[in-house]
Amino acid sequence: MKRRISLFLCIVLVFAIAITGCGKKESTSPENDEEIVEGSKDFKAQMTFNGSSTLAPVISAIAADFIEEYTTWDKVDPNFPEENIAIYVSAGGSGAGVKSVLEGTSDFGMLAREIKDEEKEKIGDMKDYTLGIDALTISINPENPLYKIKDDLSTEEIKKIFSGEYKYWDEVDNGLEHKEIVVVIRDLGGGAHEVFQKSIMGDTEVREDAIQAPSMGALVTKVMENKDAIGYASFGMVNQNEGKLIPLKVDGVEPTKENIANRSYKISRPLIVVKKGELTPEQLAFVNVLTSEKGSEIIEKMGFVPVN
After folding, report:
1. Domain boundaries, position 159
2. Are 19 and 64 in contact (CB under 8 A)?
3. Per-residue confidence (pLDDT) for residue 146, from 0 to 100
4. Closest CA to 206 of 251, 149, 144, 158
5. Burial class (CB in 10 A: 0-12, 13-18, 19+), 207
6. Rounded to two decimals, what is the model's pTM?
7. Looking at residue 5, what is its pLDDT?
8. Is the domain of 89 the same as that of 185?
9. Which of 35, 78, 127, 167 could be 275's S-S partner, Cβ–Cβ 3.0 to 4.6 Å?
């Protein structure tokens, strides 16, 4: 109960997730003692993350755990001042994460897709950290009778559904009712849709009347609320809503941790944190935790596949 109360006090969720130290607790130093970057700027007690709505809750959870353990920076490292740790996480999409790093409005960008070559070029002196792997599962509502008839869709069938060539469920299988298919996608400019477009659609566009969800959480909610809906739900979100969504096989391959890790499941994507320039000592201390075994444990608990 004490841990739950502490986490509640440490996390304020409005449009962004603001996490700050809010108590005192003795602790040890981080497990991963990398060399502190020389010539860093003046100490900053706060750091900011912006970007992927899929990765934002993961960073927030690790940050909450980090703050509950240390509370103030001097408990992380005795060379740091006794100031409350403050970590701010806001979700606006992978593209927004890159933009915020380029414009200097956040310290770190969060991406749920590969970093583009042009983005690497623009950022220049870039540091990137791959924390885990997610997948886009082709998921339906548990009340959708499709699952009782077939639990596998081919790439071509998915393409026909999302493009609107198949408009009714009985076109997917004649054993289904003549009901309109409700297609739910992320906004077209988001990282999730880029991954889906590249992995499944190719040069074929999604149907114009597809519902565009502003976040992965909103996409999943739409599918859970409508038995005729289908969408590409994050593997992590499916695990967090077990039983409320049915992920289908794609080309005979089930979206399991093993198949996602070995890339045999075709719609996978990395979860990445990027930074422009050298890390300050305090930033390095937190990144060490993000990439540590403890960070990986939290990533796995949240339903994703850690890289470590």
Report:
1. 135-268
2. yes
3. 96
4. 158
5. middle
6. 0.81
7. 33
8. no
9. 127
